[in-house]
Amino acid sequence: MGGRTVLVLGGGVGGVVAAYRLRARLPREDRVVLIDREAQHLFQPSLLWVATGTRTTDRIQRPLARLARKGIEVIRAEVEAIDPARRTVQAGGRELAGVALIVALGAELAPESIPGLAEGGCNLYSIRGAEAVHADLVQRRSGRVVVLTAAPAYKCPAAPYEAAMLIDGYLRARGARASVELDLYAAEPGPMGVAGPEVSAGVRQIVEAKGIRYHPEHQLTTVDPVARTLSFANGATTTYDLLVYVPPHRAPAVVRAAGLTGETGWVGVDRRTLATAHPGVYAVGDVTTIPLLMGKPLPKAGVFAHRQAEVVAENLATAWTGRGSPRAFDGHGECFLETGQGRAGFGAGNFYGEPVPQVVLRAPSRWWHWGKVLFEWRWLRQWF
Q1: What pLDDT does residue 333 have?
Q2: Is the per-residue pLDDT at 2 higher than 80?
């Protein structure tokens, strides 16, 4: 039977991989439709390099419309409503229906949820914010730079620590580091805690060895953009000249309105198949939550979105065509850890490991840095 439609919501890592893999496996009469409000796919890990001047935003974006060359129907529109029971979507003023629905809308950034944050600093996870960081660093010869995580859970757990170390390296290269104070305030109790205590302690050691002052368990409550002060729930306050922040995250409003989120505020899924409670509806990537035995959820990271999307696409194609074998997401993942001055570490392991994830952190080297450069090149070339 032909003529079936899969609706893929979101053109980030998970959405692109799911659509691409489905199109490669399904008969031509089946439709693969990807919907996103943006015209460009952004390779988000490279925003760190935009902030420190080794990339421009045009180099780390690709038109989603290019996916049409693969046979994927791309609709540029806002997803306005989702009906998971009917597997229908309102987008761009029209209704679309699918036999299957894959929700890959990511996490919504919510800096406005903390008074003064959006006005007082630079959002590391946005193009505008990353460019503003670089514009400041180019001229900075003194003062105090604060890197901050505004909530204890956020996507890409390594990113704020990488940002602090890349800023350190940038200032050293310009001969300004000795006259610039650099502090990292974290809402969480330690770096990358879900990777286990050894990895967390190792990352903290690398950060502090660079003279970056680390302040864990500082939950931000307010920012005064005029006085340039930060206030924390533990009563501490501090000042800054440049604030680089990771904002609070939440599931997109359209996902919440559809009733797809549970008590956690995120979409609950089967940890192996990424199926939701609604038949034919799946969710992958940052919009999901998968609890681990250790008490923390699986981190929100592109590597997991990628592998989850492959599992969903392969299982749908296998069920519809009768070819292939079912797959399961196994919780394995890895990420690079940029440490500045042309070096990076590399962490990898089984995040489904029990009683705690089994992750190993490789020491920083130029090898791993060039590995990340190659990964960026391969990603943008392979999918676009």
Answers
A1: 96
A2: no
How many CB atoms sit inside 10 A of residue 296's CB?
17
Alpha carbon dihedral 355, 357, 363, 366, in 10-degree steps, equals 170
Kindly compute the dihedral angle of the four CA atoms of residues 145, 133, 187, 340, in this order, to the nearest 10 degrees: -80
Strand, helix or coil for residue 20: helix
The distance from CA 93 to its chain's CA centroid, rounded to whole angstroms, is 29
Of the pLDDT bands very low, low, confident and very high (cuts 50, 70, 90), residue 356 is: confident
Q: How many CB atoms lie within 10 A of CB 275?
A: 15
What domains are defined for the chain? Answer: 5-107+251-321 (3.50.50.60), 109-249 (3.50.50.60)
Q: Residue 264: left (phi > 0), alpha (psi -120 to 50), or beta?
A: alpha
SS3 225: coil
How much is the pLDDT for 1?
46
> Distances from the Cα of 291 to the Cαs of 58, 197, 333, in angstroms?
37, 18, 16
Classified as helix, coil or strand, 33 is: strand
Q: What is the pLDDT of residues 69-113, one digit of tens each?
A: 999 999 999 999 999 999 999 999 999 999 999 999 999 999 999
pLDDT in tens, 270-298: 999 999 999 999 999 999 999 998 889 99
Before 279, cis peptide (omega within 30)? no
Helix axes 127-139, 159-173, angle to 10 degrees: 30
Residues 310-332 have a mean pLDDT of 96
Tokens representing 51 are 């902030």
Q: Where are the alpha helices (DSSP H) in 214-301?
A: 253-257
Residues sharing a CB contact under 8 Å with residue 319, sequence separation 6 or more, in sequence order: none
In a 10 Å sphere around its CB, with 0-12 CB exposed, 13-18 middle and 19+ buried, how is residue 99 labelled? middle
The helix/strand/coil state of 297 is strand
- Tokens (6 digits) for 293: 């035995």
| 3-class state of residue 239 by DSSP | strand
What pLDDT sits at residue 294?
A: 87
